Amino acid sequence: MAEIKNPNQQGGQDSKTILAFTTIFLVMFLGFQFMKPKKPATPAPETQQQAAAASPSQSTPQSQPSTDPVPSDSANTTQAASESTTVVENELYRITFSNRGAQVTSWILKKYKDDDGKPLDLVNHEAAAKFGYPLSLFTYDQNLSSRLQQAMFVPSATGSISAPGTLSFEYASGGLTARKTFKFDSNYLINAEVSVTQNGTPVAALLSWPSGFGDQDTLPHYAAATLDTAQGGKAEQVAYKKVSGGETLHGSFDWAGVSDLYFAAIFLPDSPKNVDLVSLQNTLTIPKNAKKPDPGQTEQAPILGAAMGAAEPYSVRVFAGPKSLDVLGAIPANGGVSLEKVVNFGWWGIISKPLFLMLKFLHDHVTGEWGWGILILTLVLNLAMLPTRFQMMKSSLKMQRIQPQMDAIKAKYAKFKATDPRRQEMNKEIFDLQKREGVNMFGGCIPMLIQWPLLFAFYRMLSNVIELRQAHWLWLPDLSAPDPLHILPIFFIVSMFLVQWLTPSPGVDPAQQRMMAFTMPAVFGFMTWNIGSGLALYWAGSNVLGIVQQMLMNRTKMGQEVREIAAKRAAKRAGKQAPLVRR
């Protein structure tokens, strides 16, 4: 990908075109990487009240206390005397339910670790304590939500249950009845059946995931949250800033839920034609430095959640787990929209997904390590792009051959102002000359534009696949995070400077060439300082291959001619005899 980082070796006008394209690239890339949210919007009071209704205070669960129903004169009363916990476990997760609210207080994913090396808990405990725990019930009546959240359900079992299995919770008191039944299997899916009535009338009590995820610890991680939906065969992801907290969407949903960069909680209704989806949005005060919290240094992080259900008894499957293409693709989805769409490759998905499948194949069958896989894929892609490098040099050479004639035409019309109509005659003469000599003024730009989508697609791919999360390679502890020792950025700057130095630029002004040779490595080096080391590794590997390719191309007949033209033009500017170029 070294071509992306180098000015095209054509005339002065063409070099300005390349500089313009490079500027556009920088603006787009910096927009992807550095346009962070300054301050999440504070939810409207109504939204906050609704969230508060779904998030009563929690007490610490106790192990296997008595769950006998409380004696009552009413035969319709069913509630436990005290709080108890039930743990459901399979090879993938360990879920702890509390009978208070019949909700989840811990959701451990056994195959994933947090930043401290401990098994990852999908529950964001700080946010859940304020806004509600997973699989709690959301209603439009604040008092009713609070009552359901605090209700002491009677569980069908306490202690530990191994999946596959079933766990149900029942509650009845004062005319309010509620029942939740959960069925567990060997995968990440849970089947939930919910029924709530008040005085015999069905109540719209929606199953919810209200409080983000346990891997969110910094503002960028919180800000990566999206509301994910699939309707009518089309999937959509809405950034948290565009989500209206408390909004109800009614209709046919194949699936819907929330996700962050690496994990998701998605509801898949068994009857998708008539369900309600409520978006939940709040804010949480977090320290700016999660590793060294300072009460005086805080910021507001967005908490995104969702609830789904109906105004009658309903059943829904719940996926809570990693955004892995393998895992998501194996889940049968309603309406034919695969859950793979939850992985956000953006506009570049048509390129990013095949790139990832190639990278995964290299990891699974060739290298066994993601770092080596990235380097091998870099080699493959650079070899595939090699014809475009030759095309760029060929176009540059053609342009340089007619450059003296173009200069003569420009000199002939130099006395006329830019607004003079006769300037159009100059442009026509130059166009006719280029056409006659078979020169396309954009011939060097088109190959570069072909490569840019590949770069953006690679960036989106490496930034969104969970497989690179905490993936080690040599000195790099996490290919999804910046290089902690900054070895890659420094190597990248040096190697990019060598690429610039080795690439002849006969049509570029020497002062401009020197500026590009120093400023571009510095700018791109700064970008690699802060991006994931997997992408920095790809760029650095591309530079090394670019150096080798350019050295070989400089030895070809075409490369020697380009260098000779560059030497003659430099000598002409300096008023000296052109040095001989060694062949």
UniProtKB/TrEMBL annotation:
It is found in: Cell inner membrane; Cell membrane. The keyword Transmembrane helix applies. Residues 44-72 have a biased composition (Low complexity). The gene is yidC. The lineage of its organism: Bacteria, Pseudomonadati, Acidobacteriota, Terriglobia, Terriglobales. Interacts with the Sec translocase complex via SecD. Specifically interacts with transmembrane segments of nascent integral membrane proteins during membrane integration. One of its GO terms (biological process) is protein transport. It comes from Alloacidobacterium dinghuense. This is Membrane protein insertase YidC. Pfam families: 60KD_IMP, YidC_periplas. Residues 73-83 have a biased composition (Polar residues). The chain crosses the membrane at residues 18-35, 370-390, 438-459, 515-540. GO terms for cellular component: plasma membrane. Signal peptide: none annotated. PANTHER family: CYTOCHROME C OXIDASE ASSEMBLY PROTEIN COX18, MITOCHONDRIAL (PTHR12428:SF65), OXA1 (PTHR12428). It comes from the Bacteria. Keywords: Cell membrane, Chaperone, Membrane, Protein transport, Transmembrane, Transmembrane helix, Transport. Required for the insertion and/or proper folding and/or complex formation of integral membrane proteins into the membrane. Involved in integration of membrane proteins that insert both dependently and independently of the Sec translocase complex, as well as at least some lipoproteins. Aids folding of multispanning membrane proteins. It is a multi-pass membrane protein.
